Amino acid sequence: MPTNQTTNYTRNNWSHLIKQLRNASLSIQEALHPCIQVAMYEATKHNFGEFQEMVSVDVPTCGVVWCGFNASLTRSGISPWSCMPIGCRSGITVIIVICILFAIFITMGNILILAVIWRTPALHHSQSVYKFSIALSDFLIGAIVFPASANSILMLV
């Protein structure tokens, strides 16, 4: 159990560090450290509106991403993307690239199938109508759903 004297000493040191932090010019990498974020909250606790939180909930491959900064840093370009660990950023990038590649391959492949069925008279029978409708629905998935999914993931960040 800490003594009262130890608690006062720690509180005084913390207050001194907080005063120094108010006047410090931090780089984005330094500001991403969780202890610095908490200290910045303490430094701005009495200045209403100076501390800003950035929360992204349920980011794929990451879960919840939280960080908080002094308002002056958020004006300099910090975003939730800056707060994410490198593994999360690379995972999101891979997911977006996969969505875009799937969209391209699905769209191009189904355009080819639709063109073959449309241009070949021997394929104009009832079974081909079914195949044409499946290719058309797959084309729409590739042209609309996959790009929208990639865009939704980008909007989370």
From TrEMBL:
Transmembrane segments: 92-117, 129-150
Keyword Membrane found: yes
CDD domains with a match to the protein in the record: 7tm_classA_rhodopsin-like
Annotated keywords: Membrane, Transmembrane, Transmembrane helix
GO (cellular component) term, any one: membrane
Compartments, as annotated in UniProt: Membrane
Span of the signal peptide: none
Span of domain G-protein coupled receptors family 1 profile: 109-157
Coiled-coil stretches: none
Protein name per the record: G-protein coupled receptors family 1 profile domain-containing protein
Organism: Ciona intestinalis
